[in-house]
Amino acid sequence: MEFSFPYAPYEIQSNLMREIKQCIEEEKVGIFESPTGTGKTLSVICATMTWLEEFEKNREDDLLRESRIVDEVDEEDWIAAHRRKLELKRIKDEAYEKLKALEKVKDKLEDAKSGLIRRNRKRQLCDGADSSEPSTTADCDVPEDYLSEDEFDTGTEESLEVVKIFYASRTHSQLDQLLDELKKTRFSPRIVTAVSRQTLCTNEIVRRLKHSHLINEKCMELRKGFTKEEKAANSDGRTNSTVIKESASKCPYYKSDAIEELSNEILANTLSRPNEVVERGKQLMACPYFSTRLSLPLCQLVLLPYQVR
C-alpha cells in the first residue's frame, strides 16, 4: 500500500494521508480536520512515517551522489572555472562530512543495541550463578560513578541530531493512544516521550516537593552536592543571606553508566512510555529524566504534552 496502512484505507483516510505528506514535502503549515472515528491518529502515523522513510533514503542517496562529484570543469574563462571548481569541492566536502555524521549515528545506535545485548547476557550469568559461590554482585551492578553537573554533556549526541517528528497532545492518555496505534503498523521509529522532571524523577526526596520550581532546585542541589541554608535574621531585621554548604548526599540515580544504559534501552526501542522508563530507571538506579535527555537527539519520534517544561 502507498502508506503501509495496516488495512485497506477508506477514501477519507487516503486523502488525509496524501494531504499531510504533501504539506510536509512542501514545507507548509497544515491544519487538518476529520470526523470522529475516521482513524486520524493512524493516518497521521502512516503519512509522517512514510515521509520520514523516504526523506532519509533520498537524503543519503543525494549525499552519496554529491560526495562522488568530479570537480573537473570545462570552462574557457579560468576565473569562472576556478570559482566553479571551488563550489564543487565545497559541495563534495559538505556531503562527505554529513555522510560521516550519518555513519556515526548508525554506529551509536548499533553500540546501543549491542551493549544492551551484552548487558542482558551478563545479568543472566549473574542471576544463574551458584548461590554457594562467592557473591559477584559488585561485578553485575552498574558502577557507581557519579556525575557532576559539568560532567553531564550530551554534546556528542547533539552533534548527531537526526530528523524528528514531534507529536504534541493535550493529555498523556492521547500519547499512549498513539503508541498503541503505532504497534498496528510496520513502522518502528526510535521513540522518546519528553515529559517533565516532575514526571520522570525517581528520587523520593525530590518528588515529595510537588512544585516544579522546588523540584528543579533540589535536583540541582543533589547533582552538584550542595545545600542552601538560610542564616539567622540579623538583629536589625535585614534580609537573611543564603549560605551554600557542601552536602554529603548526592542523588543515587545520577550515575553516568546507569544513565547511558537506560538511554540505550530507549534508543533500542525497548522503552517508549514514561512509566516504563521510570520503572526501569528504578531497577538500574538511573535517572529517567537525564536518560531521556541523552537519548532525545537520536530519536525520530518525540512525543510530548503541550505543557511540558
UniProtKB/TrEMBL annotation:
<keyword id="KW-0175">Coiled coil</keyword>
<feature type="domain" description="Helicase ATP-binding">
    <location>
        <begin position="1"/>
        <end position="309"/>
    </location>
</feature>
<keyword id="KW-0067">ATP-binding</keyword>
<dbReference type="GO" id="GO:0003677">
    <property type="term" value="F:DNA binding"/>
</dbReference>
<protein>
    <recommendedName>
        <fullName>Helicase ATP-binding domain-containing protein</fullName>
    </recommendedName>
</protein>
<dbReference type="InterPro" id="IPR027417">
    <property type="entry name" value="P-loop_NTPase"/>
</dbReference>
<keyword id="KW-0547">Nucleotide-binding</keyword>
<dbReference type="InterPro" id="IPR014013">
    <property type="entry name" value="Helic_SF1/SF2_ATP-bd_DinG/Rad3"/>
</dbReference>
<dbReference type="InterPro" id="IPR006554">
    <property type="entry name" value="Helicase-like_DEXD_c2"/>
</dbReference>
<dbReference type="Pfam" id="PF06733">
    <property type="entry name" value="DEAD_2"/>
</dbReference>
<dbReference type="GO" id="GO:0005634">
    <property type="term" value="C:nucleus"/>
</dbReference>
<dbReference type="InterPro" id="IPR045028">
    <property type="entry name" value="DinG/Rad3-like"/>
</dbReference>
<keyword id="KW-0378">Hydrolase</keyword>
<dbReference type="GO" id="GO:0003678">
    <property type="term" value="F:DNA helicase activity"/>
</dbReference>
<dbReference type="InterPro" id="IPR010614">
    <property type="entry name" value="RAD3-like_helicase_DEAD"/>
</dbReference>
<feature type="coiled-coil region">
    <location>
        <begin position="85"/>
        <end position="119"/>
    </location>
</feature>
<dbReference type="GO" id="GO:0005524">
    <property type="term" value="F:ATP binding"/>
</dbReference>
<dbReference type="GO" id="GO:0016818">
    <property type="term" value="F:hydrolase activity, acting on acid anhydrides, in phosphorus-containing anhydrides"/>
</dbReference>
<dbReference type="GO" id="GO:0034085">
    <property type="term" value="P:establishment of sister chromatid cohesion"/>
</dbReference>
